[in-house]
Design brief:
The protein is mainly alpha-helical. It has 18 helices and four strands. The strands form two sheets. A two-stranded antiparallel ribbon has the order 1-2. Strands 3-4 form a two-stranded antiparallel ribbon.
């Protein structure tokens, strides 16, 4: 790494090499050359005068990219595509006359971009499935463990640790579905010519419309894509970029919510993210166990959440068949969107692979609040024994206020049950320990988790078996 210039931390610090390579110039220009090769093969198959020798020459240099020649040529032409046509032609002198035949620059730039985004999206989807696998295991393991629920960040009725995890898991399932929909419907720009009319190709094939259509089908089949946009200007519609970034943004939203919950739980010492043996929590406070991974998830997620607005503005401002103010912008925002998603997923995999649960702390906290929640059961029991619902309700309210005062003002434990035991109005209740069993207050939470994982998650994991298991969640920093 050159430490004397700016280095994008998404590349040097956060995202994986695998994702960075997808957006590398080697991969991008390699796709340019494959697109030129596919175009030549398609045109040859449809009768244009292109020889096998020319095809073989193009094939020989697909990955042997002479970047030095292209870079020098771009300084002269101020046009990156023309510079790479020139560089390819220097290596393939016999094929040089037919490289890019009938095409416009967006034939290689837009089609290559869509192929890059498909590769990147596939990687993102596989990692989301790996994340779902980890969360499903966690949810099932802790599906029966009662814990305080929170609404308004205030203690509410009990849930279970696993049930709460199922809420995170459901969000990521929605993201998986959205990302898969975008991936399944990705199209190439195709073979459309300068303004999308295919006029140049119609001329090459002497007005044969069927051959022009066949050439586009050849290209989409060659790259294993289901089709091309039916119509385009010089570029494919930039609304597609918004679709892509929106799906990634939704993933970031789920990630932020998850990471914030973990940070809150870690502050309560109930659940915490992995903490390495030699990890330093603070340069000043040596005792600290900061949730730095979850904080980093939130930090990068906040950036990714914001990116669709950029793509929306680009889509809005594309005048007529295209303007060039999209190009530099897209080179930054699209790559960084996927790199950010990759970095977030790596962190999510790491955190979910080593979540630490502290059952005794969880039980301590819920038992501090459970007496209040048990009062409804106690009230009903006493009413059935002949008591007045309104009178009993007022007594419970009074005792509850005193118990709450004892907790808040005196810093003592919740003594509501002791107060009720001493009150003759509640003499009908003689099994407080049984009533105060937390399991009585979790409803169908365990069964909900089981049903959800079995019905919605396991089928996805089965379908993706062999694709997601390789992701370990190890991070360098």
């Amino acid at each position: 790494m050159d430490h004397t210039v700016y280095n994008n931390p998404l590349v040097t610090r956060y995202a994986t090499r695998e994702m960075s390579e997808i957006f590398s110039e080697q991969h991008r220009i390699g796709l340019f050359r494959r697109l030129w090769l596919a175009l030549a093969k398609g045109e040859q198959s449809l009768g244009l005068d292109i020889t096998d020798e020319q095809i073989a020459e193009l094939e020989a240099y697909v990955d042997d990219i002479n970047f030095d020649v292209a870079n020098a040529r771009e300084k002269v032409t101020r046009h990156d595509v023309m510079a790479h046509i020139y560089a390819y032609g220097q290596q393939c002198p016999k094929a040089a006359p037919i490289i890019h035949l009938g095409a416009t620059s967006c034939y290689v730039t837009d089609n290559a971009d869509m192929l890059i985004y498909r590769d990147a999206m596939r990687l993102v989807i596989d990692k989301v499935v790996a994340l779902m696998s980890r969360l499903a295991d966690f949810a099932m393991e802790y599906r029966k463990m009662p814990t305080l629920g929170f609404t308004h960040l205030q203690a509410a009725q009990l849930v279970t640790v696993g049930k709460r995890a199922s809420l995170w898991l459901q969000d990521f399932l929605m993201d998986f579905n959205n990302l898969s929909h975008v991936y399944d419907n990705m199209l190439l720009r195709g073979v459309k010519g300068t303004t999308g009319t295919q006029a140049s190709f119609l001329s090459l094939f002497d007005g044969d419309h069927a051959k022009v259509k066949a050439l586009e089908r050849y290209i989409t089949d060659y790259f294993g894509v289901k089709g091309a946009f039916p119509v385009s200007g010089q570029t494919y519609t930039r609304k597609e970029d918004y679709n892509i970034l929106s799906a990634l943004s939704m993933l970031a939203q789920s990630a932020y919510k998850f990471s914030q919950d973990i940070r809150l739980l870690q502050s309560m010492k109930e659940i915490e993210e992995p903490f390495a043996k030699n990890q330093v929590g603070s340069s000043a406070m040596a005792y600290k166990r900061n949730p730095m991974r979850s904080e980093r998830i939130g930090s990068i997620a906040r950036y990714l959440v914001s990116l669709p607005m950029n793509a929306a503005m680009t889509a809005c401002t594309q005048g007529f068949e295209r303007t060039l103010d999209d190009s530099a912008n897209r080179r930054i925002v699209m790559g960084e969107g996927f790199l950010a998603a990759d970095a977030i997923l790596e962190l999510l995999l790491n955190v979910t692979d080593g979540l630490v649960v502290y059952p005794k702390v969880i039980r301590k906290h819920l038992m501090e609040e459970l007496p209040f929640m048990a009062t409804e059961v106690i009230l009903m029991r006493c009413v059935k024994a002949g008591g007045s619902r309104q009178e009993l309700h007022e007594k419970i309210r009074t005792h509850s206020m005193e118990a709450e005062k004892n907790v808040r003002l005196n810093g003592k434990r919740n003594d509501l049950i002791d107060r009720l035991k001493k009150d003759p109005a509640f003499a009908a209740v003689d099994d407080y320990d049984k009533i105060l069993n937390p399991v009585n207050f979790i409803g169908r939470a365990p069964q909900q988790v089981e049903d959800f994982v079995k019905t919605y998650i396991r089928p996805v994991l089965k379908r993706y078996r062999g694709r997601y298991e390789r992701f370990t969640g190890e991070i360098n920093i």
